[in-house]
């Protein structure tokens, strides 16, 4: 009789459908905007110069340096104010930086110190 109760308890039809909960994983946001902030200014790095060498943007805007020269270059901030400007050495590709504070940020290529530029952020 105990076996009958056990089987009846497990196989009883109460008229209710079994509920199944399926958890859908939360999507990971991998949009381009999340990985790379929108560029507000592009500076070409080629022919041993930054072009434009001097530019003005607004706080919160992003500058992208686009490297396409025969030799590698980088972007290195000059002075305390520009300490965050520190790209790797690149010969082909891009590097971006978002400016969050106003001021004038001077930079150079450490491999070619005559290559200089500045970003004024208002």
TrEMBL record:
Q: For the region Disordered, what residue ranges are annotated?
A: 14-38
Record's InterPro entries?
Amicyanin, Amicyanin/Pseudoazurin, BlueCu_1, Cupredoxin, ET_Amicyanin
Q: What SUPFAM superfamilies does this protein map onto?
A: Cupredoxins
* Positions of transmembrane segments: none
Q: Which GO terms describe its molecular function?
A: copper ion binding; electron transfer activity
Q: Where does Cu cation bind?
A: 73, 109, 112, 115
- Describe cofactor binding as the record notes it: Binds 1 copper ion per subunit.
UniProt keyword Transport present: yes
Q: List the GO terms this entry assigns under cellular component, sorted alphabetically.
A: periplasmic space
Query: Which intervals carry biased composition (Low complexity)?
Result: 16-32
Report the residue ranges that make up the Blue (type 1) copper domain in this protein: 41-121
Q: Which cofactor does it need?
A: Cu cation
What subcellular compartments does it reside in? Periplasm
Q: Does the keyword Repressor apply?
A: no
Keywords of this entry: Copper, Electron transport, Metal-binding, Periplasm, Transport
Q: Spell out the protein name for this chain.
A: Copper binding plastocyanin/azurin family protein
């Amino acid at each position: 009789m105990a076996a009958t109760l056990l089987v009846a308890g497990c196989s009883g039809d109460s008229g209710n459908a079994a509920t199944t909960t399926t958890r859908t994983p939360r999507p990971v946001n991998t949009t381009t905007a999340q990985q790379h902030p929108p560029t507000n200014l592009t500076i070409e790095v080629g022919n041993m110069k930054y072009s434009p060498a001097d530019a003005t943007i607004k706080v919160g805007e992003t500058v992208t340096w686009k490297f396409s020269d025969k030799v590698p270059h980088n972007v290195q901030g000059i002075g305390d104010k520009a300490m965050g400007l520190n790209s790797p050495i690149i010969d082909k590709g891009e590097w971006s930086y978002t400016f969050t504070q106003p001021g004038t940020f001077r930079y150079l290529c450490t491999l070619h110190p005559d290559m200089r530029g500045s970003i004024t952020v208002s």
